[in-house]
Amino acid sequence: MPKTLLLADDSITIQKVVGITFANEDVQVVAVDNGEDALAKARELRPAVILADVVMPRRNGYELCEAVKSDPALRGIPVLLLAGTFEAFDEARARGAHADGHISKPFESQALINKVRELLGEPPATAPSPYRGAGAAPQPAAQAPVPSQRAPLAPPPGARPPAPAAPGARPLSAVPAGPGRPPAPGPGTPPPGARPPGPGFAP
Description:
The protein is α/β, with parallel strands linked by helices. It has five helices and five strands. It has a domain at 3-74 and 83-119: Rossmann fold (3-Layer(aba) Sandwich). 24% of the residues lie in helices and 14% in strands. Strands 2-1-3-4-5 form a five-stranded parallel sheet, sandwiched between helices. Helix 2 (35-45) packs parallel to helix 3. The termini are far apart.
């Protein structure tokens, strides 16, 4: 069975906002536009919680709270005062009226729901994340790029490894020319088949 929330506020906009805020909660909102009717409704319905605007006709929120807390049949009902941003909220008067808390208008819907749940002794509601829907698979973490490394080429299967050079062996470039082997060209010697330089050009 839904709980009854009695809203006393002369603003039609606030009445609509509070009604929409608790549309998906197990709460039935009953709205009146003045403190006198709110007190009569409180005695009739015995609501679970009362939201009262501090500025409204025929008993403002402070006076309504005082009347509720002085009535033995109603004093156990928590009263949350609503104060506009440009309205002066009287902390001392709210304490004197034994108000259970207050919230400023305009308010966030989730903040009002959690405040009412707190007054009713219920755990706060958790809003779903706007970034990930229900059941969405978690995304893998980004990995740092691995620098490419070129592995040395492996010799083909069955190939014999190169024989190590014998101690004292000279490189091929140091081997003197033998019979049938032309001498190695020295520095500045043109390659075989090259045309000689023309006049005026250094060899």
